[in-house]
Q: What sequence folds into this?
């Protein structure tokens, strides 16, 4: 199907497609198995780290007992490689009997008893990406009913081993099938990632009616290069992507890898700040049983999470890209507040960056209370016209939360109607 044909096909089907589940009004938060634990199914050699009910029991315990749940990290998400190699005689998906002997319903009950929610993985194709049974079109309804009966709260539907035509039918069909179960299930689609992520192949207006969140781009790997590649793609294409996000429908740049092996301390702080300014789902993929205090402190930053979960749900934008390899990102927040991220791509030494809120297109004659998101302390009052400097470490960030102190601040929702405008275009200063 061409992009145009696909758009027309979906537009005709739209009234019955719309998800209307009232879910994910802020970006989902929780834990996901894939990046850290992949498709490790050798429970004999590696019982502690294989994809099994034990791993998910233990992660649920950590979320409930180590302060994560109270901050909003509520989803425990199973990714690929959980099922048996074949469907049962009735054509139903079944969990691997050795690795999930009690079944998914028992795991969901365990997770729910701890005030958490369970997510599961499916794939719209012959096989999942890991080679397990996929969800062909004839199985969409059955699988939706199975997941609902098990007590699942989120479905990530991947797209390996399926054609563009199958995806164009299957992703909206799964939205209808999930709605029909009567169970509230957050629906995460990988559809745009398989269609290049951008218009005209992807119609984000229609996608937002079908899915609660969607993967647009490549899988994240445990490296700084991967984080930079994802960041570059999202902000280079922000004019097309940013308007698509909002309460109930989010762009998903993939998991947080903070606490693993590939990021330095500064880079970990940068991923958290950039994902927060992007209004991204915060789905950690790390070992919560052994996570370092430093990584935990980044992931549990209360002000950061408050910004990520802002009820307006406006995705931030890159507003400045300097020759000095400093970039500035702005996210409008409720009550005329905003978040600023000053990000250094330099690899030499800490850099002193000087600018003013006026240069960053803030309203004239306003005064803001500035709070450093990572340090926590309130820096003081700042007038729009005042020059200020921040010192940014290599591959690091300085992140500010700004609250207006004067009344002459234009509400951000007015700015949103105008975006993208000249004021929001990256500028070389």
A:
């Amino acid at each position: 199907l061409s992009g145009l044909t696909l758009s027309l096909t979906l537009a005709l089907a739209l009234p019955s497609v719309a998800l209307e589940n009232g879910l994910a009004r802020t970006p989902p938060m929780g834990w996901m198995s894939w990046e850290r634990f992949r498709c490790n199914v050798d429970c004999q050699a590696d019982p502690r780290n294989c994809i099994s009910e034990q791993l998910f029991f233990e992660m649920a315990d950590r979320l409930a007992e180590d302060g994560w749940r109270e901050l909003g990290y509520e989803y425990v998400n199973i990714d690929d490689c959980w099922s048996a190699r074949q469907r049962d005689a009735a054509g139903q998906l079944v969990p691997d009997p050795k690795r999930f002997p009690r079944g998914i319903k028992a795991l969901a009950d365990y997770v729910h008893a701890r005030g958490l929610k369970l997510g599961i993985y499916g794939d719209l194709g012959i096989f999942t990406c890991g080679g397990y049974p996929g969800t062909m079109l004839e199985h969409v309804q059955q699988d939706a009913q199975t997941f609902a009966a098990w007590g699942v709260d989120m479905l990530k539907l991947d797209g390996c081993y399926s054609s563009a035509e199958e995806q164009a039918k299957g992703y909206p069909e799964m939205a209808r099938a999930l709605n029909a179960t009567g169970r509230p299930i957050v629906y995460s689609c990988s559809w745009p990632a398989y269609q290049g992520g951008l218009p005209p192949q992807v119609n984000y207006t229609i996608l937002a009616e079908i899915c609660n969140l969607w993967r647009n781009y490549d899988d994240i790997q445990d490296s700084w290069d991967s984080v930079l590649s994802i960041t570059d793609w999202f902000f280079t294409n922000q004019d097309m992507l940013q308007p698509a996000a909002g309460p109930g429908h989010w762009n998903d740049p993939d998991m947080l890898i903070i606490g693993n092996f590939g990021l330095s301390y500064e880079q970990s702080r940068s991923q958290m700040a950039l994902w927060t300014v992007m209004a991204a789902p915060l789905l950690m993929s790390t070992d919560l049983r052994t996570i370092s205090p430093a990584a935990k402190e980044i992931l549990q930053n209360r002000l950061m999470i408050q910004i990520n979960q802002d009820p307006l749900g406006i995705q931030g934008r890159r507003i400045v890209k300097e020759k000095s390899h400093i970039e500035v990102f702005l996210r409008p927040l409720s009550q005329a507040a905003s978040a600023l991220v000053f990000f250094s791509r330099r690899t030499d030494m800490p850099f002193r960056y000087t600018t003013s809120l006026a240069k960053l297109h803030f309203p004239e004659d306003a005064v803001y209370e500035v709070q450093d998101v990572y340090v926590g302390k309130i820096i003081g009052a700042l007038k729009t016209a005042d020059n200020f400097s921040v010192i940014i470490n290599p591959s690091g960030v300085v992140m500010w939360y700004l609250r207006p102190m004067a009344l002459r601040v234009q509400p951000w929702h007015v700015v949103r109607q105008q975006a993208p405008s000249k004021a929001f275009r990256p500028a070389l200063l």
